[in-house]
Structures are given as C-alpha cells and as structure tokens.
C-alpha cells in the first residue's frame, strides 16, 4: 500500500514540474531543448550589445548623441518590418534554414559594425541588424508554436526564463568589459555578440524542421472544414471565404492594433519608472537598478506558473483583463509617488515595479497565445508575422509617448494612461472572445492566481 502511495506521489504531471525539470525536458522534446539553448545563447549576445552598444558608438566610432539617437530610432523602425517579412517567408519556406539565415545575417552586420566608422555607413548596417533581430524572434516563436503544439504557452514561459537568464549573463559579462573601458574591450564585447550568432546558428542546425500540427494535417485530409472554431481556435480553410491574408483581415488587424498598448509595460519599466523616479520624486536614485532586478527575478521564478493559468482561449482572454487591471493600479501608484518622503516614494515605486512585472507576465503569455488562436491555421506564419509588429511598434512609439505626453502631464498623465490601457484591455478581451466564439462564464470569472 505504501509503495502505491509513494509511486502515486512520484508521478508529477508534466505541466506541474519545476522550471529546471521542464528545461531539461520541455514541450517539444529534443528540438525544443536545443532551441531554448540557442535562444539563451542569442540573448546572452543581446545582453552584451544592449549594455555596450551606446558606449561603443560614442567612444569608438565617435558619433554624437544626436546621431546615435537617429541611428537607433531608424533601426527600431526597420525592425518593425522584420516580423511580417519573417512570417511571409515562413509561409513559403522551412523555418529552420530561415532562422539560421537570420543568425548569419546578424553575424555579417556585426562584423561590418566593427569596420564601419562613419554615421552614413553604420545607419544601414545597424538597421539591417535590427531587422534580422526582429525576424529571428518571430521565427523562434513560429518554431515553438509548431514544435510545442498545444503546450506552446508553457514553452513561451520557458523561453522567457531562458532569455532573461541570457540577458543577465550578457549584461554581467559586459560590465567587466565596460569597467576596462578601452577600445579593445568594447570591440571584444561586439565580437562576443557576433560569436553568439555563430553558436546559435550551429544549435539551430542540429534541430529538425518542426512538422505542422494535428489540425493542419486533418484539414489537409479534409477532416476539418474551413471556417469552424476547433477547440476555441479559428480553423479557417481557404474555402471559408475569410480575407486573403492578414492584411485584409480586419478582425486580426484590430487585435494587432490593440496589442500595441498591451505592450506598454515594457516602456513603463525601462523608461517610465527610472525617469519618473529621478525627475519627479524624492526616492533614492539607487533604487533604479532594483526595478530591473525585481523584473528579472520574478520573470524567471513566476513565468512558468503564470503560463499554466493563461493556456487556452478562455484563460488567455481573461489574462488580458487582468493585464489592464494591473497596469491601471501600477499607473495609479506612479501618480501618487510624487507625494510623501523619500522612503515612502521609494516603496510606492518598488510596488509599481512589482505590478508592471506581473502585467508583463500576463501579457507575454496571453498576447502570443491569442495571436496563435486567432490566426487561421493554414496561414498561421503570415498572421503571426503581422502580430509580431505590435511589440516592435511599441518599442519605437512607447518611450516618446511616455516622455512627451504622459510624464509631461504629471500624475494626471499616469492616471489617464492607466485608464486608457484598462479600457482597451476590455475591448481587446471582448473582440477576441467574439472571434473565438467564447461566451461569458460566471464559473471562470474568478481572478487568476499566481503561484
């Protein structure tokens, strides 16, 4: 009897295992495990670039602050085109060689960064680098969607944990090079980023091309009629009369448009919190690094648990509502942070950092899950490529929106932003539920619990 009880306790459901256990055996098996390693290596290089690129451009290539701003701004705009381009290509060619090509493209452009010294030469080189970077991210998620299948939310959580760990390692290595501060040290950091692309390309080469999902295969055999909703997912076929592609699908474009403000947590964390602390509160400036620490630790620790509560159409749409609530409360905390003493303001801002991180956790899973569920499966690659534009657009438009409009208006600006995001979250939830055929359910109206 005891043996049966012990063996029963030993059988832990796959989705309930811990982070390390799931990293060793992720959804998708060997392919997913190699891809997660490739992703971590790639993001380690990205951490090197993020920490050193501005200083490299300043002290090695001797660009002015205005030139660097234009350079990175144009590169950000170029990156917006990377997602739909990758999606379109992935609908016609295998994902695996395309992803290897993106890694090798960035290897070449990083090599050119080391030899180009003028602004005119660096502008197209850095722009192509950012385009390849965004395309690679979209292809990684397309690979994951095909490999992990119905457990794509769990894979997304593991990929974010791996990515955050990679960023942290890259930033830590960069700190050593920046402490040295010589031209040679800066060049070594750029070379380290380039090396990460080589390693990532080799790892992707070791995978096999993921097969399409069961529903796609069933449709090809005529088992799934077009235009139906299968398990809460749009299963349109070409004969269903739906728009020919994502750019003519008004419902999907509305989802992508509303998903842009659903990504504002990124700019609030990276731009809004630090600048608000420094310019409008009496909180100690030493708290600024704590925002990133809180975010990194919570994402690694909680992302997997959150993903289990955002899988499937009903949970994903409910997570959108929770995102709006969390962002509204976060913005409210930022609005009141201007009152009180240094320690009170610091405590309020730390609470805001916690809330915006929880919002990020909800968004990171629900946004991609809904992008997949809302896309007709026979054109998923092209649709997901368009969906990937939301994050790129937010990265370009979010910072100037916060600095030029929200923060310029003071505390009222934060309250207005929170109200707008919360309202748009309600609109997004209703639109997604309507497209997926999800009716209201009192049973599932309880708030998501993180654990």
UniProtKB/TrEMBL annotation:
This is MFS transporter. It is a multi-pass membrane protein. The keyword Transmembrane applies. It comes from Streptomyces pulveraceus. The keyword 4Fe-4S does not apply. Gene3D superfamilies: MFS general substrate transporter like domains. Keywords: Cell membrane, Membrane, Transmembrane, Transmembrane helix, Transport. The chain crosses the membrane at residues 65-86, 107-131, 162-181, 188-205, 286-307, 319-336, 342-359, 405-427. It is found in: Cell membrane. InterPro entries: MFS (IPR011701), MFS_trans_sf (IPR036259), MFS_Transporters (IPR050171). Its main location: membrane. It comes from the Bacteria.
